[in-house]
Specification:
There is one protein chain. The protein contains 16 helices and 17 strands. The chain is of the alpha/beta class and 478 residues long. β13 and β14 form a beta hairpin. 38% of the residues lie in helices and 18% in strands. The protein starts with 5 loop residues before the first helix and ends with a helix. The radius of gyration is 23 Å and the shape is globular. Bound molecules: nicotinamide-adenine-dinucleotide. The site of nicotinamide-adenine-dinucleotide has 28 residues, from α4 and α7.
């Protein structure tokens, strides 16, 4: 979801929509779901995106330096995320788009084909990916951004056709499907990168390698928490004139246009918000803690939406247990459908400090040094964290309650000075294409994507079972 990625979807949709004027009907419709300021901010954003796209289109494809081997790429799934990935790939030198495949030939397919052509990529358009694989013999890589329940079949067939594959998360909506993908990558000898893009984000890499690995700023991590709460949003729709004929919808596993547009909420197609949003962040818990979870318990349900159109839980509150070499860790995660306040982040708490990190610039990353921890001067001098923000000493306020002498002094806040100026997905795609050229190792190969899927898919099971479920080490082994 732009959801996951609300920002991403907004960007993709904004770009697709171009400089559309917002009329009164839009305003009234918008006012019922978003604050007025947000709506006008959104209008500005749309306009800005359009201007950027127009300026970039005039520039033509990102030019590859002479010695860079050109990679022939196809996009399979040209929806909101397909557009976001395309925008990021258009900034990466040395890629040549050859084909776009999407079953929504009336809308998404046309939109992405047109945007690639604006950048002087002469792509062929397909509805059926098998026809694309048959005809586009020179393809080196396929980037997959179809709904989760198609990932396994699409990735397996592309790998079997000797293409390298970048496949969006969640790797698959079933573990069986994810296992088939790992097997196909191994058998084909081709690369399979799963789209957990934070694994290539310089901010996350810096925190993992320098702050936790080298400087060990947090001391012993005891608890983790994280969230991604979303505002209530209307279902996605489509104008009648762009509707996909029923026979084609059925052929590709959708019962109607509503399900086609809102597949995330349907059992057998997606996994609801915990899979859509939580998968990114639960993946970070495991990565930073260095072990897979041992247990999970969760509570959730359809607290807000109509279960007829939202089969998956709109609210999930989850606790994972991890047995790390340093000791046990409890990790809480929540995704709720209410409003989007406080955004999304992960928070790691140790006995010497706390790391608050997010993909979003709203939180970016901050570390808090407990007053009992050794000084961090070395790490400030090395530039790993900024000097602490000096805490404000408040004037004595006669009307305020008298501070208890036993109250903890809040830890110093240090910022993590790493800013990603590229689109969020660009470093992960760059890592994939570097690996295709033999110049890097994948940051999220199939095995890691699989481990992540094991942890995440179990949450929905735990909600349903209403009990604490265990993982065995074998569950993660493939
Ligand atoms: N990494 C991230 O931050 C991130 C963000 C958003 C979405 N995603 C993932 O990207 C994927 C796509 O999500 P989305 O938001 O773009 O969904 P979407 O519904 O907007 O787009 C899916 C597209 O796939 C097409 N499609 C469906 N079945 C197909 C088939 N069999 N063959 C060819 N095309 C087919 C649809 O026509 C549609 O254009 C999902 O797996 C989602 O989890 C990842």
């Amino acid at each position: 979801m732009a959801g996951e990625d609300d920002k991403d979807k907004v960007a993709a949709q904004a770009k697709a929509a171009g400089p559309k004027k917002i009329d009164r009907r839009d305003v009234l419709k918008g006012l019922s779901t978003v604050p007025a300021l947000g709506l006008f901010g959104y209008a500005w954003y749309k306009q800005h995106q359009y201007q950027q796209a127009t300026a970039q289109a005039a520039a033509g494809p990102a030019v590859a330096p002479g010695d860079l081997q050109e990679i022939n790429v196809a996009l399979l799934g040209a929806g909101a995320q397909g557009q976001v990935l395309t925008d990021a790939m258009l900034r990466i030198p040395g890629l040549r788009f050859r084909a776009v495949c999407d079953i929504w030939t009336e809308y998404n397919q046309k939109r992405v084909v047109n945007s690639m052509r604006k950048f002087k990529h002469e792509v062929n358009a397909y509805e059926d990916y098998r026809e694309m694989l048959d005809k586009e013999k020179e393809l080196d890589a396929v980037v997959i951004a179809t709904p989760d329940f198609w990932h396994s079949q699409h990735a397996v067939d592309c790998l079997k056709a000797a293409k390298h594959v970048y496949c969006e998360k969640e790797m698959s909506n079933t573990l069986e499907g994810a296992r088939a993908m790992v097997a196909a990558a191994r058998e084909s000898g081709k690369l399979l990168q799963i789209g957990h893009q934070r694994r290539s984000n310089p901010r996350y890499l810096h925190c993992y390698q320098k702050l936790l690995g080298e400087a060990k700023l947090l001391g012993r991590i005891v608890t983790v928490s994280g969230q991604w709460n979303r505002a209530v949003t209307p279902d996605l729709g489509a104008p009648d004139r762009y509707a996909i004929p029923e026979a084609r919808l059925k052929q590709y596993g959708f019962k109607d246009m509503h399900q086609f547009r809102n597949w995330r909420w349907y059992k057998g197609l997606g996994g609801g918000p915990i899979v859509d949003l939580g998968s990114h962040q639960i993946d970070i818990y495991t990565w930073f803690l260095g072990v897979n979870p041992s247990h999970v318990m969760a509570s959730g349900g359809q607290l807000y939406y109509d279960p007829k159109t939202h089969e998956w839980y709109d609210t999930a509150m989850v606790v994972f247990d991890y047995d790390t070499p340093a000791g046990p860790v409890k990790a809480y995660y929540q995704t709720q459908t209410t409003n989007g306040s406080l955004g999304y982040f992960e928070n790691f708490m140790g006995d010497q400090g706390t790391l608050l990190i997010s993909e979003s610039e709203v939180h970016a990353a901050k570390v808090y040094r407990d007053t009992n921890a050794p000084a961090w001067d070395t790490w400030v001098q090395k530039g790993y964290v900024t000097a602490p923000k000096i805490q404000e000493v408040k004037e004595k306020d006669e009307s305020a309650a008298v501070m208890d002498v036993r109250e903890s002094v809040s830890p110093d806040e240090h910022k993590v000075p790493i800013v990603l100026r590229d689109p969020y997905h660009q470093p992960h795609l760059q890592n994939f294409f570097d690996a295709v050229r033999g110049k890097a190792k994948l940051n999220c190969p199939a095995e890691i994507g699989y481990e992540s899927a094991v942890s995440v898919l179990k949450v929905n099971e735990a909600i349903e079972a209403k009990s604490r479920l265990s993982f065995t080490p074998e569950d993660f082994h493939i």
